[in-house]
Predict the 3D structure of the following.
Amino acid sequence: MNSEIPDAGTMAASVLQPDLTVSVEERQMPVPDPDQVLVRIEAVGVCGSDVHYYRHGRIGGFVVDGPIVLGHESAGTIVAVGSGVDPARVGERVSIEPQRSCRVCEWCKRGEYNLCPQIEFYATPPIDGVFADYGLIQSDFAHTIPDDMSMESGALLEPLSCGIAAVRKAGIEPGSSVLITGCGPIGIICAQAAKAYGASEVVMTDLLAERREIALRFGATRVVDPAAEQVPDASFDAFIDATGALPAVRSGIAAVKPGGCAVLVGMGDDDMNLPVSTITAREINLTGIFRYNNTWPAAIAMVQQGTVDLDSLVTGRFGLAEVQHALDIDNQPDVLKSIVEPQR
C-alpha cells in the first residue's frame, strides 16, 4: 500500500451524538481494503439530510442511535491505495460517489446499484460520512476531476448527481417545460440540470422572495410566489418537487400535462394525500428518486462545459470545529451551500 498517512495514526472528525450534540473527536485513521482508496478530504458540502439528522435524529427508518460522522458531498486527494488498486492513483484529485453496493444483486446487475438492498451510504446510520480529515471509498467510486475544477465543485458533483437523476426521471429533453417547487440548493441544482438537458422553460416557486431572486440567477426562466399566484393547471411537461411540502406537491402534480412526469425529490412526510384522480385521468408518471446511479461522468462534463455553475452556489466555508454552526444556518434565505474544509 502506498501511503502518506500521518504517523500519529489518528485523525479529527466532527461527530453527531445520539443526543444531537456535535463535537470534534480523534478517530483512528482508516486503512483501505484491497479495492479502496484513502482520500484526504478537502471539501464537504452541507446537505439537507445532514441538517435533518442534526435537527431530528432520523430520516424515515434511519435513526441516529449511536455516534455518527455526517457529510457525504465530498472531494479530496488520494493519499493511499489498497493492494488491488494501481499505486499511480496516489495524488489524484477526486470527487467521491459516497456509496457502496453489493455489486451482485439484481439491481446492481442492471446498473441500478442505488437500489441495492445492501447499500451502504455515507452519513446514513450506521455508516460514517466525511466531516473528517480522511475517508475511504472503493476505487471506481473515486472519480478523477480535472485540475481546473475546484474542490468545492468536486464535492458538489454529488448534489448535482441528484439533480441529474431527477431530470432523467422527469424525461427532460430539448424544448421541455418544467415546474420546480422550492428554490433551495437542490431546487437550484435541478433547475441548472434541466437547462443543461435542454429545457426551454424552467418555472420555479418559493414562498421566500430572496430565494426566488437567487433562482433567476441559476437557470429559472420565471419565478412564482405560490402564496400570490397559482400555476396554471396542466401546463408543464414535467414537475420536480424540491420541498417535500404537501401543498407544493399537490399543486405541482395539478400543473402536469397529460402523459407528463412528476418527480418527488424533497424529503416530506412519510404519507401524503395525493390527487389520485388527476394522476390516473392524465396518466401522470409519478416517481421519486433514491440518490443516483451512473451520473458522475455527466456531472463532470456539465461543469467542464460551463452548462452548470457549482462554485457560485458556495456561500460559506467552515472548519471541522464549526460544523454545528454550518448546520444551524442551513435555513437562512441567503445560504445556498456551506462547505466544510476539514484541512482548514
Summary: The chain has a mean pLDDT of 96. The two ends are 27 Å apart (CA to CA). The longest helix spans residues 151-170.
